[in-house]
Structure formats: C-alpha cells, structure tokens
Amino acid sequence: MINKIKFTFFFLFIVSLTFAQKTICGKIINSETKGVVDIAQISVKNSSKGVYSNIDGVFKIANINSVDTLVITHISFEKKYISLNQFPTDGVISLIPKVNLLNEVCIKSTSLKEYKLIPRRRLLLNSSYSGMSGDEVATLVSDSHLEGAYLSSIVILTRKILVDHYYIRVHLYNNKNGMPGKEIVLKDNLYEFIKGSSKSIIDIYESRIVFPKEGLFVSMEYIGKFEKGSFIKDDDMNKGLRPYIITRAIKDGEQAYIRIWDNKWHILEDLMGGSYKQHKYLIGLTVVM
Fold first, then answer.
1. Domain map of the chain by residue range?
2. Which of 39, 72, 281, 287 is most buried as measured by Cβ atoms within 10 A of its Cβ?
3. 174-226, pLDDT tens digit by residue?
4. Which neighbouring-strand residues pair with 283?
5. Domain 109-288 maps to which CATH number in 2.60.120, 2.30.30, 1.10.3470, 3.40.50?
6. What's this model's pTM, rounded to 2 decimal places?
7. Residue 219 neighbours by CB under 8 Å, 6+ apart
8. Is 57 helix (H, G, I), strand (E, B) or coil?
9. Cα(70)–Cα(62) distance, integer angstroms
10. Angle at the Cα of 259 (from 58 to 279), degrees rounded to 5?
C-alpha cells in the first residue's frame, strides 16, 4: 500500500513537471546576416497565445507548457517551428530569409489608368470590428474585368484613428476555392496608422503584383501600439482606442475571414457569433492598367 502511494505521488510529480507553465525569453536573428529580426510573430501552436519581437528582436512569452510548440513567422523569412523541449539554451532563434522573386516589369506612368475596387460606405451596416494583437482579418476582392492589371495600393476604411504609433501588417493571399490560400509576397507590408485618419492608403506598387482573374484576399493583421521599443499589451490599452475596421453587408458568395496568430482561417460569423452575420470588412484595392 505504501509503495502504491509513493508511486502515485511520483506519477503526479512527473505529470506536474511535464505540464508546468513557465515563461521563456528569446531573440530572433537573421541566419545569414546575424542581424536582429524585429516584429516577428511568435505564437504557441494551436492556441491564442502569442507576441511580437521588439526592435532588438527580443520576445517574452508567459504561461506556456513544456509540451507546447512555438511558431515563428515573418513575411521575409521561412516559417519555423520549435518544440519547447528543444528550445535553444541561449534563447537565440535563427530564421532563414525567403528568396523573393518580384516581377521587374516596368510600366510607363503616362499609360496608367487607376481603377478602384473599394466597397462604398453607403452600404454600411453601421458597424465595425476591432481586433487584438495577432488577429488577422481578410476579405476577397475580385473583378474579372481587371485581370492583368497591376496592384497599386491597399485601402482600409476605419473609424477615426484615436491613437498614434499603432502598427498593422497587410497581406495578400491567393483565392483558394473561396478561402485565403498561399500568401503573395509584398516588398514591405508594415504600416503605421495615422492618428485622426479614417482612410488608410498603403502603396504596394513596387511589389509588381498582377491582379488575377479569380481575385485575391486582402488582409490586415493587428500588431499593436508601439511604445518605448516594444508593443504594449492589448490588455493595457483602452479598447476604444484600438483601430476599428468599418464593415458592410456582404453580397452573395462573399465571406469575411479571421484567424488568430498562425492558426486556421475561420468564417467571421462562425468564430465571433451571430452579431457579425453577413458582415464584410471594408478593405479594398486600387489597380492600374
């Protein structure tokens, strides 16, 4: 009986060690240049936990288990998975740069004509959506008549921005059967909202991306307010100060998508509930031909 009790306590002790929560710190660097990688996304696989590296490439993530796996992503680097039981003792994580082959075709500016693919505000449901750090929202932009045009800018319509130094990332994805598919690499996708603005125009022309016949998904990833070299926690920021994307009623066949950190995409209504039924984010594009 005593031996059985000892075994039980030993088993519970091992289990508690295995699943004990802890805090880890690390630093993200470029495997080739050894320079720091700032604003990399570090998240716990299949969870809602995550952070961004600061200007020194340093990050700190709390309340994770020894059996968890970290996912490190950055648009300029290959994605990396690290099991916590294999976390480097010095905390340094190297990312391999992507080989980004951009289309170098030149277009004469005198022949350009701009077309706008931006939802109109008059179709609004008088509603908006605000996310937290790590949330990414996406909407499909399509028009078969503009196949072959070059993307000029991404346009995001919001409520009036009430805070300064709030950063986001914009992304483009192939349309894979009506859902966001493979990411299309942008030359630069980091953007700082301008306080007082309600319409943000992000120039992507230098990426030389051709508008496909099936359209593409445009997304916005919430990063956070930058302060003293790091991004402050959303919990420490008044919810009313976060950027709110205007939404409108969707048309037949349209869907709005959302994902948290590097997890799977979900239809907005399925993840957020009926209050977001038939809503679409007002994120659009301008193209030139």
1. 2-95, 109-288
2. 281
3. 999 989 999 988 888 899 999 999 999 999 988 888 899 888 999 999 998 88
4. 156
5. 2.60.120
6. 0.83
7. 136, 137, 138, 139, 170, 171, 172, 173, 180, 257, 283
8. coil
9. 12
10. 135
